[in-house]
Amino acid sequence: MIIECLKSKIHRVTITQANVNYVGSITIDKRLMEAANIICGEKVQVVNVTNGERLETYAIEGEADSGVVCLNGAAAHKASVGDVVIIISYAQMEFEAAKEFKPWVIFPDTATNKLVK
Questions:
Q1: Which of 19, 60, 90, 104 could be bridged to 37 by S-S, CB 3.0 to 4.6 A?
Q2: Active-site positions?
């Protein structure tokens, strides 16, 4: 049996930009993507803690150590600069393997979107 499980989570980052005039996606600081093991083009769910909106899009890499978290295209209407969001990705895996799997979960500083050491 295959089930879908949490693979990666960037817990509580702040939207720094919203760009309606873009093809689509969410731009995420490269360091956050690396720490959460999210790759460019990977499908992610964005959960807006501030207003309750949820959406699915794909991740694109932003400048490393910039703190950028930018919703692009139509998704930009689902959040405002300053909103706090959680970014989640999932993976499909065998049931028994899922029992042993440990997801990548990071807790950046919400004020700066930088990794906390």
A1: 104
A2: 25, 58
Q: What's 8's domain CATH number?
A: 2.40.40.20
Tens of pLDDT, residue by residue over 12-59, are 999 999 999 988 799 999 999 999 999 999 999 999 999 999 999 999
Total structural domains within the chain: 1
pTM, whole model, 2 decimals?
0.96
Q: Is the residue at 115 inside a domain?
A: no
Q: Give the side-chain half-sphere CA count within 13 A for 84.
A: 10
- Residue-range definition of the domain harbouring residue 45: 2-106
> Do the Cβ atoms of 83 and 51 come closer than 8 Å?
yes
The answer as to whether 55 is a domain residue is yes
95: its two tokens: 């049931």
| Among candidate residues 65, 89, 69, the one with its CA nearest the CA of residue 78 | 69
In this predicted structure, what is the pLDDT of residue 24? 76
CA atoms of 25 and 98, how far apart (whole Å): 28
In a domain, 47, yes or no: yes
Tell me the backbone φ, ψ of residue 56, rounded to 5 degrees.
Answer: -115, 140
